[in-house]
Amino acid sequence: MVSTHRAPATASADDPTPTTRSRDVRSRLVDVAAELFARHGFEGTSVQTVVEAAGVTKGAMYHHFTSKDDLLYEIYARVLRTQINQLLRIAELDLPVDQRVHAAAVDVVESTIASLDDSIIFFRSMHQLGPDKQMQVRAERRRYHERFRDMIEEGQRTGVFSSAVPADLVVDYHFGAVHHLSTWYREGGPWRATDVGNYFADMLLSALRP
């Protein structure tokens, strides 16, 4: 259930800092919007409904987001930011390239499953974003795919991976399977996220071996 509790208007010495409170408000707005979009659809949810459910004012909402489109974008963008940061960290590890690719392949599956509801909501409504926001999403996703592809190409240059298949197609193959998770994966099913991540990564590495 969406909480309608409003934070106290007055602050005390024990209250979070203004920056922390601002982050909390932003996060609460996105969480509430995701729940409402899932329940009523993007078009069926008004900004007023979101701010009332989040327990904030419209002024607070527009301090963080310029529109309902921005809320929808942020539902997916926060997932993608986490994935990009994780990928960059993994790519710089002092490990053989095949181990880094395996770790990155596992991570994207686990992080996708961890935020599966948000991803489903976003992709169901992405077509309703304005052209600029859609371009922004594609650019950020392309940045992720390109860094993943760089590791595949590194392995191909050094002979660790086969060069029989272009790296771009390898990336499309893996992420096509990852994006398909939302159609079949269910929490409480026979496989944990870690299991699926390792299965996917093992299949990817097996296909890449010379």
UniProtKB/TrEMBL annotation:
PROSITE patterns, A to Z: HTH_TETR_1 (PS01081), HTH_TETR_2 (PS50977)
InterPro entries found in the cross-reference section: DNA-bd_HTH_TetR-type_CS, Homeodomain-like_sf, HTH-type_TetR-like_transc_reg, HTH_TetR, KstR2_TetR_C, Tet_transcr_reg_TetR-rel_C_sf
Domain called HTH tetR-type: residue spans: 23-83
Compositional bias of kind Low complexity: 7-20
Pfam families registered for this protein in UniProt: TetR_C_24, TetR_N
Disordered, as annotated region: 1-24
Keywords from the UniProt entry: DNA-binding, Repressor, Transcription, Transcription regulation
DNA-binding region: 46-65
Top-level taxonomic group: Bacteria
Annotated protein name in UniProt: TetR/AcrR family transcriptional regulator
Organism for this UniProt entry: Lipingzhangella rawalii
